[in-house]
Design a protein that fits this description.
three-stranded antiparallel β-sheet; 17% strand; alpha+beta; two-stranded antiparallel sheet
Length: 115
């Protein structure tokens, strides 16, 4: 369910803290919507391989506003956790949580992308 978020107490910058939904509140429809976009799918695929990366490393030369939108959708779908590291936003998959919520979904999607 998009819309109910909690403050991330681990964030170093509370003024720019990113909000992440509790994984129990993420709806399957929201996860599938996030994974249905080629840009977001590319981001998820790269994070699955690299573990963690900055927004800049994953932007693919796209405008900042577009990249911000895609990361917001991924966060709201429970797929990505974004944290501040100084002025850099670092992103990682919430893989264990997501796999617990939707067993096998991410593996199936990533296997299809890598064919």
């Amino acid at each position: 369910m998009i819309g109910k978020f909690h403050h991330d107490p681990d964030s170093e910058d509370s003024l720019r803290a990113f909000k992440h939904p509790p994984i129990e509140e993420v709806a399957l429809a929201d996860a599938l919507h996030a994974l249905s976009d080629p840009v977001r799918l590319d981001i998820v695929s790269k994070l699955a391989m690299d573990g963690e990366a900055s927004c800049a490393a994953l932007d693919g030369g796209r405008p900042k506003s577009s990249v911000s939108h895609h990361f917001r959708v991924l966060r709201e779908a429970g797929l990505v956790r974004t944290r501040n590291e100084g002025v850099v936003h670092m992103n990682a998959l919430r893989r264990e949580e997501f796999d617990r919520r939707f067993p096998g979904l991410l593996n199936a999607v990533l296997a299809a992308v890598n064919r």
